[in-house]
Automatic annotation (TrEMBL):
Family annotation (PANTHER family): GERANYLGERANYL DIPHOSPHATE REDUCTASE, MONOOXYGENASE
Superkingdom of origin organism: Bacteria
Species in which this protein is naturally found: Georgenia daeguensis
Keyword Flavoprotein attached: yes
Positions of region (Disordered): 399-423
Name the UniProt record assigns to this protein: 3-hydroxybenzoate 6-hydroxylase
Span of domain FAD-binding: 5-349
InterPro entries assigned: FAD-bd, FAD-dep_Monooxygenase_BioMet, FAD/NAD-bd_sf
Gene3D superfamilies assigned to the protein according to its UniProt record, in alphabetical order: FAD/NAD(P)-binding domain (3.50.50.60)
Record's compositionally biased regions (Low complexity): 410-423
Keyword Magnesium among UniProt keywords: no
Keyword entries, A-Z: FAD, Flavoprotein, Monooxygenase, Oxidoreductase
Reported cofactor(s): FAD
Length: 423
Protein backbone atom coordinates (compact mmCIF):
# COMPACT_ATOMS: atom_id res chain seq x y z
CA UNK A 1 0.00 0.00 0.00
CA UNK A 2 1.39 3.41 -0.93
CA UNK A 3 -0.04 6.92 -0.98
CA UNK A 4 0.32 9.12 -4.03
CA UNK A 5 -1.03 12.43 -5.11
CA UNK A 6 -1.95 11.21 -8.58
CA UNK A 7 -2.33 7.63 -9.82
CA UNK A 8 -2.51 7.12 -13.57
CA UNK A 9 -4.04 3.92 -14.95
CA UNK A 10 -2.34 3.19 -18.27
CA UNK A 11 1.18 3.90 -19.50
CA UNK A 12 0.59 4.67 -23.17
CA UNK A 13 1.48 8.00 -24.78
CA UNK A 14 -1.29 9.75 -22.85
CA UNK A 15 -0.46 8.26 -19.44
CA UNK A 16 3.31 8.71 -19.66
CA UNK A 17 2.96 12.20 -21.13
CA UNK A 18 0.67 13.21 -18.26
CA UNK A 19 3.02 11.68 -15.67
CA UNK A 20 5.91 13.71 -17.02
CA UNK A 21 3.96 16.95 -17.10
CA UNK A 22 2.48 16.44 -13.63
CA UNK A 23 5.94 15.73 -12.20
CA UNK A 24 7.31 18.86 -13.85
CA UNK A 25 4.64 20.77 -11.91
CA UNK A 26 5.94 19.25 -8.69
CA UNK A 27 3.27 16.55 -8.23
CA UNK A 28 3.95 12.95 -7.12
CA UNK A 29 2.68 10.42 -9.65
CA UNK A 30 2.49 6.64 -10.01
CA UNK A 31 1.72 5.08 -13.40
CA UNK A 32 0.17 1.60 -13.46
CA UNK A 33 0.58 -0.21 -16.78
CA UNK A 34 -0.97 -3.63 -17.35
CA UNK A 35 1.63 -4.84 -19.87
CA UNK A 36 4.99 -6.34 -18.86
CA UNK A 37 6.71 -3.34 -20.45
CA UNK A 38 5.92 0.11 -21.79
CA UNK A 39 5.56 -0.47 -25.51
CA UNK A 40 3.82 0.84 -28.61
CA UNK A 41 2.78 -0.85 -31.84
CA UNK A 42 5.42 -0.87 -34.61
CA UNK A 43 3.88 1.92 -36.64
CA UNK A 44 4.11 5.64 -37.22
CA UNK A 45 2.43 8.69 -35.80
CA UNK A 46 1.85 12.20 -37.09
CA UNK A 47 2.04 15.17 -34.76
CA UNK A 48 0.68 18.46 -36.05
CA UNK A 49 1.87 21.93 -34.92
CA UNK A 50 -0.79 22.20 -32.19
CA UNK A 51 0.94 19.24 -30.51
CA UNK A 52 4.61 19.94 -31.27
CA UNK A 53 4.22 23.50 -29.98
CA UNK A 54 3.26 22.09 -26.57
CA UNK A 55 5.95 19.36 -26.70
CA UNK A 56 8.49 22.10 -27.32
CA UNK A 57 7.36 23.90 -24.18
CA UNK A 58 7.94 20.79 -22.03
CA UNK A 59 11.30 19.97 -23.62
CA UNK A 60 10.19 16.76 -25.37
CA UNK A 61 10.31 18.06 -28.95
CA UNK A 62 14.10 18.43 -28.98
CA UNK A 63 14.40 14.77 -27.90
CA UNK A 64 12.18 13.39 -30.66
CA UNK A 65 13.19 15.68 -33.53
CA UNK A 66 16.39 13.77 -34.42
CA UNK A 67 14.31 10.59 -34.88
CA UNK A 68 11.47 12.33 -36.70
CA UNK A 69 10.90 13.47 -40.26
CA UNK A 70 9.56 16.94 -41.06
CA UNK A 71 7.59 16.37 -44.26
CA UNK A 72 7.28 19.22 -46.74
CA UNK A 73 3.74 18.45 -47.90
CA UNK A 74 0.57 16.54 -47.24
CA UNK A 75 -0.43 15.04 -50.56
CA UNK A 76 -3.90 13.77 -51.39
CA UNK A 77 -4.26 11.27 -54.21
CA UNK A 78 -7.16 9.48 -55.85
CA UNK A 79 -6.46 5.79 -55.14
CA UNK A 80 -8.33 4.60 -58.24
CA UNK A 81 -7.04 6.97 -60.93
CA UNK A 82 -3.66 7.80 -59.33
CA UNK A 83 -4.33 11.53 -59.80
CA UNK A 84 -2.80 14.01 -57.36
CA UNK A 85 -5.78 16.03 -56.09
CA UNK A 86 -4.28 18.54 -53.71
CA UNK A 87 -1.40 19.31 -51.36
CA UNK A 88 -0.98 21.23 -48.13
CA UNK A 89 2.36 22.98 -47.73
CA UNK A 90 3.95 22.05 -44.39
CA UNK A 91 7.06 24.23 -44.65
CA UNK A 92 4.98 27.37 -44.60
CA UNK A 93 2.72 25.76 -41.98
CA UNK A 94 5.68 25.79 -39.60
CA UNK A 95 5.98 29.56 -39.97
CA UNK A 96 2.25 30.02 -39.68
CA UNK A 97 1.80 28.00 -36.49
CA UNK A 98 5.24 28.46 -34.95
CA UNK A 99 5.92 24.73 -34.70
CA UNK A 100 6.71 21.89 -37.10
CA UNK A 101 4.53 19.12 -38.48
CA UNK A 102 6.42 15.90 -37.74
CA UNK A 103 6.06 12.17 -38.34
CA UNK A 104 7.82 9.59 -36.21
CA UNK A 105 7.75 6.03 -34.97
CA UNK A 106 5.38 5.55 -32.04
CA UNK A 107 8.08 3.78 -30.01
CA UNK A 108 10.40 6.75 -30.42
CA UNK A 109 7.82 9.05 -28.87
CA UNK A 110 6.87 6.60 -26.12
CA UNK A 111 10.53 5.95 -25.23
CA UNK A 112 11.25 9.68 -25.06
CA UNK A 113 8.29 10.22 -22.73
CA UNK A 114 9.22 7.22 -20.56
CA UNK A 115 12.87 8.26 -20.27
CA UNK A 116 11.92 11.82 -19.39
CA UNK A 117 9.37 10.57 -16.82
CA UNK A 118 11.90 8.14 -15.31
CA UNK A 119 14.32 11.01 -14.83
CA UNK A 120 11.78 12.78 -12.61
CA UNK A 121 12.19 11.86 -8.91
CA UNK A 122 8.42 12.29 -8.37
CA UNK A 123 7.42 9.59 -10.87
CA UNK A 124 7.04 5.88 -10.15
CA UNK A 125 6.42 3.64 -13.15
CA UNK A 126 4.95 0.16 -12.59
CA UNK A 127 4.44 -2.50 -15.24
CA UNK A 128 2.41 -5.73 -14.76
CA UNK A 129 -0.16 -3.67 -12.84
CA UNK A 130 -3.59 -4.11 -14.41
CA UNK A 131 -6.16 -1.92 -12.71
CA UNK A 132 -9.25 -3.97 -11.91
CA UNK A 133 -11.08 -1.98 -9.25
CA UNK A 134 -11.49 1.67 -8.36
CA UNK A 135 -13.07 3.08 -5.22
CA UNK A 136 -13.65 6.77 -4.53
CA UNK A 137 -13.71 7.10 -0.73
CA UNK A 138 -14.47 10.82 -0.69
CA UNK A 139 -11.17 11.95 0.82
CA UNK A 140 -9.05 9.59 -1.33
CA UNK A 141 -9.26 7.06 -4.12
CA UNK A 142 -8.17 3.41 -3.83
CA UNK A 143 -7.00 1.55 -6.90
CA UNK A 144 -6.66 -2.24 -6.88
CA UNK A 145 -4.69 -4.25 -9.43
CA UNK A 146 -4.98 -7.81 -10.70
CA UNK A 147 -1.69 -8.68 -8.97
CA UNK A 148 -3.15 -7.73 -5.58
CA UNK A 149 -1.45 -4.34 -5.28
CA UNK A 150 -3.59 -1.56 -3.78
CA UNK A 151 -2.69 2.11 -4.00
CA UNK A 152 -4.27 5.11 -2.36
CA UNK A 153 -4.15 8.50 -4.04
CA UNK A 154 -5.70 11.93 -4.03
CA UNK A 155 -6.78 11.51 -7.63
CA UNK A 156 -7.00 8.76 -10.24
CA UNK A 157 -6.58 9.55 -13.93
CA UNK A 158 -7.82 6.88 -16.32
CA UNK A 159 -5.46 6.86 -19.29
CA UNK A 160 -6.27 3.26 -20.09
CA UNK A 161 -7.28 3.60 -23.70
CA UNK A 162 -10.27 2.72 -25.85
CA UNK A 163 -11.47 -0.12 -23.60
CA UNK A 164 -10.94 1.87 -20.41
CA UNK A 165 -11.90 0.28 -17.10
CA UNK A 166 -11.79 3.66 -15.37
CA UNK A 167 -14.26 5.21 -17.83
CA UNK A 168 -16.91 2.83 -16.50
CA UNK A 169 -16.81 4.80 -13.22
CA UNK A 170 -17.97 7.88 -15.15
CA UNK A 171 -20.28 6.51 -17.84
CA UNK A 172 -21.67 3.16 -18.92
CA UNK A 173 -21.02 3.13 -22.65
CA UNK A 174 -19.16 1.03 -25.18
CA UNK A 175 -16.78 1.75 -28.08
CA UNK A 176 -18.60 2.51 -31.34
CA UNK A 177 -17.34 0.12 -34.06
CA UNK A 178 -16.87 1.74 -37.47
CA UNK A 179 -16.75 -1.47 -39.52
CA UNK A 180 -13.35 -0.35 -40.84
CA UNK A 181 -10.12 -2.20 -40.20
CA UNK A 182 -6.49 -1.07 -40.42
CA UNK A 183 -3.34 -2.94 -41.39
CA UNK A 184 -0.21 -0.99 -40.57
CA UNK A 185 3.49 -1.13 -39.98
CA UNK A 186 6.84 0.62 -40.42
CA UNK A 187 9.42 -1.38 -42.36
CA UNK A 188 12.95 -0.62 -43.65
CA UNK A 189 12.57 1.84 -46.48
CA UNK A 190 14.52 -0.42 -48.86
CA UNK A 191 11.92 -3.20 -48.35
CA UNK A 192 9.08 -1.09 -49.79
CA UNK A 193 8.18 -0.60 -53.44
CA UNK A 194 7.94 3.12 -52.74
CA UNK A 195 6.54 5.32 -55.49
CA UNK A 196 6.08 8.59 -53.62
CA UNK A 197 8.51 11.26 -52.44
CA UNK A 198 10.16 10.83 -49.02
CA UNK A 199 9.30 14.47 -48.25
CA UNK A 200 5.58 13.79 -48.44
CA UNK A 201 2.87 12.40 -46.21
CA UNK A 202 0.62 10.76 -48.78
CA UNK A 203 -3.06 9.92 -48.41
CA UNK A 204 -4.67 7.78 -51.12
CA UNK A 205 -8.47 8.03 -51.00
CA UNK A 206 -10.65 5.35 -52.57
CA UNK A 207 -14.19 4.02 -52.26
CA UNK A 208 -14.51 2.79 -48.68
CA UNK A 209 -10.73 2.81 -48.16
CA UNK A 210 -7.60 4.87 -47.76
CA UNK A 211 -3.86 4.25 -47.62
CA UNK A 212 -1.43 6.54 -45.78
CA UNK A 213 2.34 6.53 -46.39
CA UNK A 214 5.20 8.47 -44.80
CA UNK A 215 8.78 7.95 -43.62
CA UNK A 216 9.71 7.70 -39.94
CA UNK A 217 12.89 7.22 -37.84
CA UNK A 218 14.86 9.90 -39.66
CA UNK A 219 13.89 8.34 -43.00
CA UNK A 220 15.16 4.82 -42.26
CA UNK A 221 11.68 3.28 -42.03
CA UNK A 222 8.60 3.73 -44.19
CA UNK A 223 5.22 3.69 -42.46
CA UNK A 224 2.08 2.52 -44.22
CA UNK A 225 -1.51 2.22 -43.02
CA UNK A 226 -4.14 0.57 -45.20
CA UNK A 227 -7.71 1.05 -43.99
CA UNK A 228 -10.91 -0.32 -45.52
CA UNK A 229 -14.60 -0.78 -44.82
CA UNK A 230 -15.15 -4.48 -44.35
CA UNK A 231 -17.92 -6.12 -46.35
CA UNK A 232 -17.45 -9.14 -44.09
CA UNK A 233 -18.30 -6.93 -41.10
CA UNK A 234 -21.49 -5.75 -42.80
CA UNK A 235 -22.40 -9.40 -43.47
CA UNK A 236 -22.02 -10.14 -39.76
CA UNK A 237 -19.04 -12.48 -40.09
CA UNK A 238 -17.20 -13.04 -36.85
CA UNK A 239 -13.73 -13.07 -38.45
CA UNK A 240 -14.02 -9.92 -40.53
CA UNK A 241 -11.43 -7.69 -42.18
CA UNK A 242 -9.18 -10.64 -43.04
CA UNK A 243 -5.93 -10.31 -45.06
CA UNK A 244 -7.79 -11.91 -47.99
CA UNK A 245 -10.40 -9.16 -47.79
CA UNK A 246 -7.59 -6.58 -47.67
CA UNK A 247 -6.17 -7.97 -50.92
CA UNK A 248 -9.58 -8.16 -52.59
CA UNK A 249 -10.50 -4.60 -51.55
CA UNK A 250 -7.28 -3.05 -52.85
CA UNK A 251 -7.13 -5.12 -56.06
CA UNK A 252 -9.06 -2.48 -58.03
CA UNK A 253 -6.81 0.42 -57.03
CA UNK A 254 -4.10 2.03 -59.16
CA UNK A 255 -0.67 0.40 -59.38
CA UNK A 256 1.09 2.76 -56.90
CA UNK A 257 -1.43 1.68 -54.25
CA UNK A 258 -1.46 -2.03 -55.13
CA UNK A 259 2.32 -2.35 -54.81
CA UNK A 260 2.16 -1.04 -51.23
CA UNK A 261 -0.12 -3.76 -49.93
CA UNK A 262 2.29 -6.76 -49.86
CA UNK A 263 4.70 -4.97 -47.49
CA UNK A 264 2.01 -4.55 -44.82
CA UNK A 265 2.12 -6.97 -41.88
CA UNK A 266 -0.70 -9.55 -41.99
CA UNK A 267 -0.46 -11.03 -38.52
CA UNK A 268 -2.24 -8.26 -36.68
CA UNK A 269 -5.10 -6.02 -37.73
CA UNK A 270 -6.86 -3.19 -35.93
CA UNK A 271 -10.67 -2.92 -36.11
CA UNK A 272 -11.40 0.81 -35.91
CA UNK A 273 -13.74 2.18 -33.26
CA UNK A 274 -14.27 5.46 -31.46
CA UNK A 275 -16.46 6.71 -28.62
CA UNK A 276 -19.34 9.13 -28.49
CA UNK A 277 -18.11 12.51 -27.21
CA UNK A 278 -18.90 13.08 -23.52
CA UNK A 279 -19.89 16.30 -21.78
CA UNK A 280 -17.81 15.50 -18.69
CA UNK A 281 -14.83 13.26 -17.93
CA UNK A 282 -14.83 13.49 -14.16
CA UNK A 283 -16.60 12.03 -11.15
CA UNK A 284 -15.32 12.95 -7.71
CA UNK A 285 -11.63 12.07 -7.52
CA UNK A 286 -11.60 10.19 -10.82
CA UNK A 287 -10.93 11.76 -14.21
CA UNK A 288 -9.98 10.64 -17.70
CA UNK A 289 -7.61 11.55 -20.50
CA UNK A 290 -6.58 10.33 -23.93
CA UNK A 291 -8.53 7.57 -25.66
CA UNK A 292 -10.21 6.71 -22.35
CA UNK A 293 -11.85 10.14 -22.51
CA UNK A 294 -12.22 10.77 -26.23
CA UNK A 295 -11.24 7.83 -28.45
CA UNK A 296 -11.52 9.11 -32.01
CA UNK A 297 -11.21 7.76 -35.52
CA UNK A 298 -7.70 8.48 -36.78
CA UNK A 299 -8.60 10.62 -39.81
CA UNK A 300 -7.35 13.89 -38.33
CA UNK A 301 -4.18 12.22 -36.96
CA UNK A 302 -4.84 13.74 -33.55
CA UNK A 303 -5.68 11.02 -30.99
CA UNK A 304 -2.26 10.70 -29.36
CA UNK A 305 -1.62 14.41 -29.70
CA UNK A 306 -4.90 15.27 -28.00
CA UNK A 307 -3.96 12.94 -25.13
CA UNK A 308 -0.77 14.97 -24.67
CA UNK A 309 -2.76 18.20 -24.65
CA UNK A 310 -4.93 16.65 -21.92
CA UNK A 311 -1.80 15.95 -19.87
CA UNK A 312 -0.58 19.52 -20.23
CA UNK A 313 -3.98 20.89 -19.22
CA UNK A 314 -4.63 18.64 -16.21
CA UNK A 315 -1.10 19.16 -14.87
CA UNK A 316 -1.55 22.92 -14.94
CA UNK A 317 -4.98 22.66 -13.31
CA UNK A 318 -3.72 20.40 -10.49
CA UNK A 319 -0.53 22.35 -9.89
CA UNK A 320 -2.40 24.83 -7.72
CA UNK A 321 -3.41 22.20 -5.14
CA UNK A 322 -0.25 22.14 -3.06
CA UNK A 323 1.47 19.37 -1.13
CA UNK A 324 -0.96 18.55 1.67
CA UNK A 325 -4.25 16.62 1.56
CA UNK A 326 -6.38 17.86 -1.30
CA UNK A 327 -9.83 19.05 -0.20
CA UNK A 328 -12.61 17.70 -2.37
CA UNK A 329 -13.85 21.16 -3.38
CA UNK A 330 -10.33 22.12 -4.52
CA UNK A 331 -10.10 18.95 -6.60
CA UNK A 332 -13.53 19.77 -8.07
CA UNK A 333 -12.36 23.26 -8.99
CA UNK A 334 -9.13 22.06 -10.60
CA UNK A 335 -10.89 19.36 -12.60
CA UNK A 336 -13.58 21.80 -13.70
CA UNK A 337 -10.83 23.98 -15.12
CA UNK A 338 -9.31 20.97 -16.91
CA UNK A 339 -12.69 19.99 -18.32
CA UNK A 340 -13.50 23.51 -19.46
CA UNK A 341 -10.27 23.56 -21.44
CA UNK A 342 -10.44 20.10 -22.89
CA UNK A 343 -13.85 18.38 -23.06
CA UNK A 344 -15.44 20.46 -25.81
CA UNK A 345 -12.17 20.93 -27.70
CA UNK A 346 -11.44 17.19 -27.86
CA UNK A 347 -15.10 16.43 -28.61
CA UNK A 348 -14.91 18.69 -31.66
CA UNK A 349 -11.92 16.74 -32.93
CA UNK A 350 -13.75 13.45 -32.32
CA UNK A 351 -16.83 14.60 -34.26
CA UNK A 352 -14.87 16.19 -37.10
CA UNK A 353 -12.75 13.06 -37.55
CA UNK A 354 -15.90 11.10 -38.36
CA UNK A 355 -16.88 13.62 -41.04
CA UNK A 356 -13.42 13.50 -42.63
CA UNK A 357 -13.67 9.74 -42.83
CA UNK A 358 -17.01 10.05 -44.63
CA UNK A 359 -15.52 12.51 -47.15
CA UNK A 360 -12.47 10.37 -47.86
CA UNK A 361 -14.39 7.14 -48.21
CA UNK A 362 -17.27 8.23 -50.45
CA UNK A 363 -18.07 5.40 -52.82
CA UNK A 364 -20.78 6.65 -55.14
CA UNK A 365 -20.07 8.37 -58.40
CA UNK A 366 -21.34 11.93 -57.97
CA UNK A 367 -20.05 12.49 -54.40
CA UNK A 368 -16.65 11.22 -55.56
CA UNK A 369 -16.58 13.68 -58.45
CA UNK A 370 -17.58 16.52 -56.13
CA UNK A 371 -14.99 15.60 -53.51
CA UNK A 372 -12.21 15.37 -56.06
CA UNK A 373 -13.20 18.66 -57.64
CA UNK A 374 -13.24 20.41 -54.25
CA UNK A 375 -9.81 19.03 -53.44
CA UNK A 376 -8.42 20.01 -56.86
CA UNK A 377 -9.53 23.61 -56.42
CA UNK A 378 -7.65 24.07 -53.15
CA UNK A 379 -4.58 26.23 -52.92
CA UNK A 380 -1.60 24.49 -51.31
CA UNK A 381 -1.19 27.47 -48.95
CA UNK A 382 -4.84 27.56 -47.92
CA UNK A 383 -4.85 26.73 -44.20
CA UNK A 384 -8.09 28.29 -43.15
CA UNK A 385 -9.86 25.00 -42.54
CA UNK A 386 -7.07 23.60 -40.35
CA UNK A 387 -6.41 26.84 -38.45
CA UNK A 388 -8.98 25.80 -35.81
CA UNK A 389 -6.95 22.65 -35.16
CA UNK A 390 -3.31 23.60 -35.72
CA UNK A 391 -3.61 27.21 -34.54
CA UNK A 392 -3.32 29.75 -33.07
CA UNK A 393 -1.94 31.41 -36.17
CA UNK A 394 1.08 33.55 -35.39
CA UNK A 395 0.60 37.26 -35.68
CA UNK A 396 1.39 38.50 -39.19
CA UNK A 397 1.40 34.97 -40.69
CA UNK A 398 -1.31 35.90 -43.15
CA UNK A 399 0.27 39.20 -44.12
CA UNK A 400 2.99 39.01 -46.68
CA UNK A 401 4.73 35.73 -45.97
CA UNK A 402 2.39 33.39 -47.81
CA UNK A 403 4.10 32.29 -51.01
CA UNK A 404 2.22 32.10 -54.30
CA UNK A 405 0.56 28.79 -55.08
CA UNK A 406 2.63 26.31 -57.07
CA UNK A 407 1.53 26.60 -60.70
CA UNK A 408 -0.64 29.56 -59.73
CA UNK A 409 -3.70 28.16 -61.49
CA UNK A 410 -6.08 27.75 -58.54
CA UNK A 411 -9.05 30.07 -58.98
CA UNK A 412 -9.18 32.71 -56.23
CA UNK A 413 -12.75 31.85 -55.27
CA UNK A 414 -11.81 28.21 -54.67
CA UNK A 415 -10.25 28.63 -51.25
CA UNK A 416 -13.41 27.62 -49.41
CA UNK A 417 -13.02 24.02 -50.55
CA UNK A 418 -12.24 21.53 -47.79
CA UNK A 419 -8.69 21.45 -46.52
CA UNK A 420 -8.11 17.83 -45.71
CA UNK A 421 -6.29 16.91 -42.55
CA UNK A 422 -5.46 13.26 -42.42
CA UNK A 423 -4.29 10.05 -40.75
C1 LIG B 1 -4.42 3.42 -37.50
C2 LIG B 1 -4.25 4.52 -36.48
C3 LIG B 1 -3.51 5.64 -36.79
C4 LIG B 1 -3.36 6.66 -35.86
N1 LIG B 1 -2.61 7.74 -36.19
C5 LIG B 1 -2.44 8.74 -35.31
C6 LIG B 1 -1.63 9.86 -35.62
O1 LIG B 1 -1.05 9.93 -36.72
N2 LIG B 1 -1.49 10.86 -34.70
C7 LIG B 1 -2.11 10.79 -33.48
O2 LIG B 1 -1.93 11.72 -32.67
N3 LIG B 1 -2.89 9.73 -33.15
C8 LIG B 1 -3.07 8.71 -34.02
N4 LIG B 1 -3.83 7.63 -33.69
C9 LIG B 1 -4.52 7.61 -32.38
C10 LIG B 1 -3.58 7.18 -31.27
O3 LIG B 1 -2.99 5.95 -31.57
C11 LIG B 1 -4.32 7.06 -29.96
O4 LIG B 1 -5.21 8.13 -29.80
C12 LIG B 1 -3.34 7.07 -28.78
O5 LIG B 1 -2.50 5.96 -28.86
C13 LIG B 1 -4.09 7.07 -27.46
O6 LIG B 1 -3.15 7.05 -26.41
P1 LIG B 1 -3.64 6.67 -24.94
O7 LIG B 1 -2.40 6.71 -24.10
O8 LIG B 1 -4.80 7.48 -24.56
O9 LIG B 1 -4.19 5.17 -25.07
P2 LIG B 1 -3.41 3.84 -25.44
O10 LIG B 1 -2.34 4.08 -26.42
O11 LIG B 1 -4.45 2.83 -25.79
O12 LIG B 1 -2.71 3.43 -24.08
C14 LIG B 1 -3.47 2.89 -23.01
C15 LIG B 1 -2.50 2.14 -22.11
O13 LIG B 1 -3.22 1.68 -20.98
C16 LIG B 1 -2.91 0.33 -20.73
N5 LIG B 1 -4.07 -0.24 -20.04
C17 LIG B 1 -5.27 -0.57 -20.56
N6 LIG B 1 -6.10 -1.04 -19.61
C18 LIG B 1 -5.40 -0.99 -18.45
C19 LIG B 1 -5.70 -1.34 -17.10
N7 LIG B 1 -6.90 -1.82 -16.76
N8 LIG B 1 -4.74 -1.17 -16.16
C20 LIG B 1 -3.51 -0.68 -16.49
N9 LIG B 1 -3.16 -0.35 -17.75
C21 LIG B 1 -4.11 -0.50 -18.72
C22 LIG B 1 -2.65 -0.26 -22.09
O14 LIG B 1 -1.85 -1.43 -22.02
C23 LIG B 1 -1.91 0.89 -22.77
O15 LIG B 1 -0.53 0.86 -22.54
C24 LIG B 1 -3.99 6.58 -34.59
C25 LIG B 1 -4.74 5.45 -34.28
C26 LIG B 1 -4.87 4.43 -35.19
C27 LIG B 1 -5.68 3.23 -34.82
Amino acid sequence: MSTDQVIIAGGGIGGLGAALMLARKGLRVTVLEQAPEFAEVGAGLQLAPNITRMLDEVGVLEKILPLSVQPKRLVFMNAVSGEMLTTLDLVDARRRYGAPYIVLHRSDLLDALREAAEAEPNVVLRTDHRVTKVEDRGDSVVVTCANGAALTGQLLIGADGLHSVVRKEIVQDEPVPSGYVAYRGAVPVEDVDRRMDMDDVVVWMGPGLHLVQYPVRAGKLYNQVAVFRSQEYLEGKEDWGTPEELDRTYAGMCEQVRVAIPSLGRIKRWPMADREPLTNWTKGRISLLGDAAHAMLQYLAQGAGQSLLDGASISTALSTLGDGAWAREDVDRALARYESERVEAAGNVQSTARVWGDIWHVDSHVPMILRDEAFRRRDTYDYHLVDWLYGPVREGADAGNVPQPVGGDAPAEATSAPTPAHA
